[in-house]
Design brief:
Residues 4-175 form the Bacterial bifunctional deaminase-reductase C-terminal domain. It is a single chain. This protein has helices at residues 30-36, 50-62, 67-74, 100-110, 121-129; strands spanning 4-11, 15-18, 45-49, 77-80, 93-96, 115-117, 135-141, 149-152, 160-170, 174-183. The protein has an 8-stranded mixed β-sheet with strand order 5-4-3-6-1-7-10-9. Strands 2-8 form a two-stranded antiparallel sheet. The protein has 197 residues and is of the alpha/beta class. A hairpin with a 3-residue loop joins strand 9 and strand 10 (174-183). The protein is globular. It has a single domain (4-183), classed as Dihydrofolate Reductase, subunit A, CATH 3.40.430.
């Protein structure tokens, strides 16, 4: 059985990106970049939606010699989309136009390779809401982008209890937090409290 991890980066106020700011909010440092290059960070199948595929494959086409995009190109990738059409040019990419929740449920049940999301906020919400996520990992960048932030990560999420199972600091400023998530049917201590299925 495969384990599914939601993997995201965020500003302190919960945005995935910010208008006018560079990638990683300009705060990626040598420790963090070295961690991204570790082999264990590339031994999984990447799940993404159409928008993330368009964005990331576009970057990969513009920067074919970038080591990070070369590594992603070598990894197996699954894109869930009803708008993209085959053939997809990015190497090792499979297009799936069926229901993502059901397909990922089957991938988890029948597979042995870990699964991780890349971006794809609506896909992450769907998979978490369906109770399919085993780990929730976030790297928090120490910025607040209240005026320029875009793509709020947690909008539309269900209530979720998080049990911390790991943490790490990179370059004295970036905080990695890893949790086991449990979707709640309502706030604890209410008639609708308690754990969801």
């Amino acid at each position: 059985m495969s384990e599914l991890m939601i993997d995201c980066i965020t500003s302190l106020d919960g945005y995935a990106a910010a208008e006018g700011w560079p990638g990683f909010w300009g705060l990626e440092g040598p420790e963090y970049l070295a961690w991204l290059d570790e082999p264990s960070e590339h031994e999984h199948t990447t799940l993404m939606g159409a928008n993330t595929y368009r964005l990331m494959s576009g970057f990969a086409a513009e920067m074919p010699d970038d080591p990070g995009f070369k590594q992603i190109a070598e990894m197996p990738k699954v894109v869930f989309s009803s708008t993209l059409e085959e053939p997809l040019w990015w190497a090792n990419t499979r297009l799936v136009n069926q229901d993502a929740v059901e397909v990922v449920r089957e991938m988890k049940r029948d597979g042995t390779t870990p699964l991780r999301t890349l971006g794809s906020l609506s896909l992450c919400r769907s998979l978490l809401g369906a109770g399919l996520v085993d780990r929730f990992r976030v790297v928090v960048f120490p910025v607040i982008t209240g005026s320029t932030g875009r793509e709020r990560i947690y909008d539309g999420y269900p209530d979720v209890a998080l049990e911390m199972v790991g943490s790490r600091t990179f370059d004295g400023r970036l905080q990695l937090l890893e949790f086991v998530p449990t979707v709640l049917s309502g706030p604890p201590g209410t008639d609708h409290g308690g754990r969801g299925a």
